[in-house]
Amino acid sequence: MKKPLAVFALACVILAQAASAQASAKHFRSSHEHFREYTAMASDLFLSADDPAEKNTLGLLAASSSFYAERAYLVMQLTDILENMIDPSDVAYVEKRIQDIKEFVLEVIRSEIKRVGDLTMSQNNPDIKKVGNLIVNELRVFERNTGNL
Questions:
Q1: Is the entire prediction scored with pTM above 0.85?
Q2: 42 CB contacts (<8 Å, ≥6 apart)?
């Protein structure tokens, strides 16, 4: 009678671990998609702006968002690979690479959040503020999710 309960409990643990790993890949996929959307928004505003200072700001916002879209994509791919690995030595290798990326991202992202936040808050154009705030919020989400790896 206890054996089926133990098998059920083991299955629950395995499913919970798989679900949490999949959630992390899904989180990074979401960040990647959001950053791409915000890059497009900043680029569209760039094309319609006349003021050189606004164009410069929008170019920087688009570049920052595009840059972090690529980082989110990289982390998403690695977490997805990790979720599908079986061999313990392969798992350890990918986990090490993910930890290296985690350390790198966390080392530089706080200054990026401050830089984009300061740039956004200094703007008078409400559309630029909106895009900048969206990017800052997504940077914070990306930072939190990366910290949870």
A1: no
A2: 58, 59, 61, 62, 65, 131, 135
